[in-house]
């Protein structure tokens, strides 16, 4: 490709509103341009990178036995009503009507469509197992699109769906996808971790893992052990019951006057006690049932763990008016003592260790002190209800928990029969009995993966593409287009390198040498071959972008030199 004609407009200055390196560099290097908030056009350079990542994905998915298809982006709302997700998915679901006022959605994911497709075309165990995937544009109406293609409203995604007759088959497909994802992200030269995670809006009660690329700009926090391979999203990282039950204090429980002390900070300052002596109480509505969750004051209650503990469809923190209507007092003074009969009290494991605790008294401007669990209030059950903290013991018993930021690029789910039962995707088994198909779901954010690669592979001068996904292999620079020797040598190398199998970009623009060098570093192609002052001698300068190493090489030796060099670089 000739750079003079190549539609790849570069930018010298950092664009306004681009806050992270991947967003800045994808704009500056001419990979993308914003069309609207959270909506981007991929220019030829960006499209080449996108295609290379897609091909890696296709190769690994095909090797794992999956079959590629393509489903429509526009989906009838009837399917979402059948699955029960139409009203539960949230405002991110983009909706539209056709000219006949029929309702549709723009697909953020395709569980409903794929399930109905298989339901209508597969009815025997003889056709299973099956794993189907697509690479397609998805749509989510993000409240706050940011960070370029990392959080956008239109994005490219690979989504796959497996269908099995039993749990063992699902486990096999899940492991095959887990291995394929490991290969994909390794081939993209990413430093990543596969972490235990929550299924979120996709649903399902089986296992689930997120593939997280380690990055300071990541919006997710990974909890991992420094002494083992344990890793989990901080929202799902589990904690063992490691607390001994404290003996009851000699002092009896009594109420104290605590005007304007509603928060943990206000109580610790006003009562001059440590936060681990406080009992924090939050009222949740779990499938419309009031559940009071209690934890230590130095811990934070984890809503996802509450939801999972009760296997609930809908969990939310009660609003202030709901708290007052149920508990008879405002939020800052609720507690587990003398709760209304309809309220269930559950406690985090750590509450067992609290000695002479302080909790809300369910009276305005009142708290209780010298509170002891089970002596002074009933506990329906203890469980793991809190967010993990740095320094907590690792759940696998090896080392302690540390935190790192991560960018989610992939997610694998064991869906079970959530969608097959809702949409009637059944098969006839060996005995002619109807059984629901057992499903798995496996997604990769293709455009997010590109941004994650840029985050890990750049320097102050620009991009540093791994050769596996680089848009071009070699960048030939003709420094002075007025010098016939440089032009002729550049053209000759351009043709010979293409014949040798390299994908080549030649900078034949009528620009100053300094501009060409800066743009070459910005574009970040693996190898740069410069035709400069020694062109008449048949000498070119070869530079590797990643390590900056430069060598002068005679054109007669260039073929063998590049063969060896290309094999060595990442």
Mean model confidence by pLDDT: 95
Integer tally of domains? 3
How would you sum up the global shape?
globular
Strand content: 25-35%
- Quote the distance from N terminus to C terminus: 23 Å
Number of strands: 31
The first-level CATH class of the largest domain is given as: Alpha Beta
Write down the CATH topology of the largest domain: BirA Bifunctional Protein, domain 2
Let me know the largest β-sheet.
9 strands, mixed
Fraction of residues in H or I helices: 25-40%
Named at the architecture level, the CATH assignment of the largest domain is: 2-Layer Sandwich
Gyration radius over CA: 29 Å
Helix/strand-derived category reads alpha+beta
Uncertain runs with pLDDT below 50, 5 residues or more?
none
Q: How many DSSP helices?
A: 13
The named CATH superfamily of the largest domain:
Bira Bifunctional Protein, Domain 2
């Amino acid at each position: 490709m000739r750079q003079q004609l190549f539609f790849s407009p570069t930018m010298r200055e950092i664009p306004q509103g681009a806050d992270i390196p991947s967003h800045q560099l994808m704009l500056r290097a001419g990979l993308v341009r914003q069309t609207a908030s959270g909506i981007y056009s991929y220019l030829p350079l960006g499209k080449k990178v996108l295609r290379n990542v897609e091909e890696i994905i296709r190769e690994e998915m095909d090797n794992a036995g999956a079959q590629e298809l393509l489903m429509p982006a526009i989906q009838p709302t009837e399917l979402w009503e059948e699955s029960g997700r139409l009203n539960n998915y949230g405002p991110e679901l983009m909706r539209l009507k056709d000219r006949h006022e029929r309702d549709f959605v723009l697909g953020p994911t395709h569980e409903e469509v794929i399930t109905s497709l298989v339901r209508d075309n597969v009815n025997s165990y003889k056709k299973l197992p099956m794993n189907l995937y697509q690479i397609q544009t998805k749509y989510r109406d993000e409240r706050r699109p940011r960070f370029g293609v990392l959080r956008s409203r239109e994005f490219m995604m690979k989504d796959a769906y497996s269908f099995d007759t039993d749990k063992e088959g699902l486990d096999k497909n899940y492991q095959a996808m887990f291995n394929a994802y490991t290969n994909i992200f390794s081939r993209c030269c990413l430093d990543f971790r596969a972490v235990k995670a929550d299924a979120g809006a996709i649903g399902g009660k089986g296992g689930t893992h997120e593939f997280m690329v380690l990055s300071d700009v990541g919006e997710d926090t990974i909890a991992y052990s420094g002494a083992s391979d344990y890793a989990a999203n901080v929202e799902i990282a589990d904690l063992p019951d490691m607390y001994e039950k404290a003996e009851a204090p000699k002092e009896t429980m009594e109420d104290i006057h605590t005007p304007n002390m509603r928060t943990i900070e206000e109580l610790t300052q006003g009562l001059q006690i440590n936060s681990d002596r406080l009992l924090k109480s939050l009222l949740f509505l779990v499938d419309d049932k009031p559940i009071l969750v209690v934890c230590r004051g130095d811990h934070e209650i984890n809503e996802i763990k509450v939801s999972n503990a009760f296997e609930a469809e809908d969990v939310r923190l009660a609003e202030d008016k709901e708290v007052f209507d149920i508990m008879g007092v405002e939020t800052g003074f609720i507690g587990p003592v003398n709760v209304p009969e309809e309220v269930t009290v559950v406690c985090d494991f750590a509450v067992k260790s609290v000695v002479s605790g302080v909790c809300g008294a369910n009276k305005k401007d009142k708290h209780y002190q010298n509170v002891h669990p089970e002596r002074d209030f009933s506990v329906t059950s203890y469980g793991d209800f809190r967010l993990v903290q740095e320094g907590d013991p690792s759940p696998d018993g090896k080392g302690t928990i540390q935190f790192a930021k991560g960018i989610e690029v992939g997610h694998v789910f064991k869906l079970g029969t959530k969608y097959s039962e809702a949409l009637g995707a059944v098969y006839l088994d060996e005995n002619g009995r109807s059984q629901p198909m057992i499903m798995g779901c496996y997604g990769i954010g293709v455009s997010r993966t590109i941004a994650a690669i840029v985050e890990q592979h750049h320097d102050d001068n620009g991009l540093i593409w791994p050769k596996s996904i680089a848009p071009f292999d070699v960048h030939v620079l003709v420094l002075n287009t007025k010098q016939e020797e440089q032009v002729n040598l550049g053209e000759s190398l351009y043709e010979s390198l293409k014949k040798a199998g390299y994908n080549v970009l030649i900078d034949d623009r009528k620009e100053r040498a300094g501009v060409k060098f800066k743009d070459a570093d910005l574009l970040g192609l693996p190898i740069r071959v410069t035709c400069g002052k020694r062109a008449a001698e048949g000498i070119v300068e070869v530079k590797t972008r990643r390590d900056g190493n430069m060598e002068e090489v005679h054109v007669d030796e260039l073929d063998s030199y590049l063969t060896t060099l290309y094999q060595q670089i990442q």
